[in-house]
Please model this.
Amino acid sequence: MTTENGTNGTGESLLTVDGLKKHFQVGSGLFGRNKTFLKAVDGINFEIKEGETYGLVGESGCGKTTTAKMILRLEDPTEGSFNFQGNDALTMDRDLVRNYKSSVQAVFQDPWASLNPRMRVGSIIGEPLEVNSTLTKGDIADRVGDLLEEVGLQRYQSNLFPHEFSGGQRQRIGVARALALNPKLIVLDEPVSALDVSIRAQIMNLLEDLQDEHGLTYLLIAHHLATVRYMCDKVGVMYLGRIVEEAPTEELFDNPRHPYTRALMSAALPSHPDIEREEIILTGEVPSPVNPPVGCHFHPRCPSRFEPCEDNSPVETQPTPDHRVVCHLY
Ligand code: SF4
Model:
């Protein structure tokens, strides 16, 4: 939903995430005394405004997919909370939970794996309506036809099976299914990374058109920076379960402050061949989230580390009002 100043959104908060954590127990030690935990998500805060696209970006294993699962209520948080339209999503009564689950839908990465190969496309798209609405079979068939057209497919294709479609078409089916219940928020978990480069732009354009048309809000999970830059209004950069930097998209790409963000961007291809970019090589592997480094979690790989980084965890600062960063340099 593009506004006069070129940004998306109405300014109203749709989702507010506060101190969200997910720790998985991975060992109990002798007599259960030394339990060990994998800190997949370790205390993150962010807010998504209505009509915006918020991106969570980072290397695989940084916690972005676990975050998505908590927002979709597929995983219970260990700690923290999130509010959806002003209601605490973790303490809602049954009616509100049903409403929440209709309002928050998902499109997953792999269109080959996310559609049941034995179901016809009409049943796949119509299933959420059968479960959650009182529409008649005929009304559901009409709605499925409308949804197919909306995502660029044809009504008759509801009789086909998923294997009769290309990868891009299958992702369109996934989008149609996500739209069936008129959601407010769609979690896009790497929605184009399994697709050929030639059709990624088509799916991104489709998602943008649908956002404008329906006032949708997106939480985009991605590791591909070009996708994030193209689609997002605001981006949070995750490292080892924490958001280490967050800013409006252009601000983040023009003026990345955290050494990890800079390294990610230098590893990605520049948007234009004439753009010169200093190459920052990240040494070492991502440390284990079971036993993260003390001090700043990023210090073993950080080209800018200095004296306090090994012992002291940096706290969040805001160099500008809408740019936050967690690093001792600021
Ligand atoms: Fe690098 Fe230190 Fe900043 Fe961590 S706190 S990112 S180690 S400079």
